Amino acid sequence: MACHNRHVSFPASSLPLVLKAEEELHKLKALVGSGSLTCEIILDAIKAVGYVYECIDDLLCMPSNQNGLSHMQQRRWVDLELEGSIKLLDMCSTSRDNLNDIKYHVRDLGSAIRRGLDTIKSRVLFYNQLVKKANKDVKKQVARKSEAMAGDVPAVGLLLSETRDITTSLLHCAFSILLKQAESEKTGMWPVVSGLLQKRRIVCKKEIQEDVLDVVEDLEIGLENLFRQLIRCRVSLLNICCL
């Protein structure tokens, strides 16, 4: 969300939190722009994003900031931010649901391999379809643009805007990587499973987990923690509206 505007500075008491948030955002921006993201790096980045939202929530709960943001001239910004927070919550919720479907199917595939079912390849193809759907859903959410803020915008608004942009970029990258891995001729699910079957190895559930399931579960946990932090920030914004 582009912000061509003036910002209203924080009170001096807020500066330690602001500096922490800005330092983490600077690292995250450099990470996203590096083009060398992996699922493991994204998992760590999502934790860092959660820390930034924790700092922002602390800022929103400070009485000095609440008093300033509760003035009528700032209410337009609060309304826009509440709208933006709903879109990001929807994105996280949809991503969690898709990850849960993927996780369930990977477990089902592991059971099918152990039982030697003939439908293994079709199950692998269905797994690929689930990852494609998850990637498509997150791309749709990224394409949804919030109304740009204009005029005097509180500095916390700029922090929230930057953090939201980074969060959507990280989620987009995460599902893009999962899709690339699923479709890869060397590291995709079917080449891995096919190779193991050709060697007549007994494939246990743990071996499938090591390739896909652990990353999916860790990403799901990361999104769950991030979702809770987003809810706290939204509640803090709503509390400001009630002042």
TrEMBL record:
Origin superkingdom: Eukaryota
Protein name as catalogued: Uncharacterized protein
GO term, biological process aspect, one: root development
Upper classification of the organism: Eukaryota, Viridiplantae, Streptophyta, Embryophyta, Tracheophyta
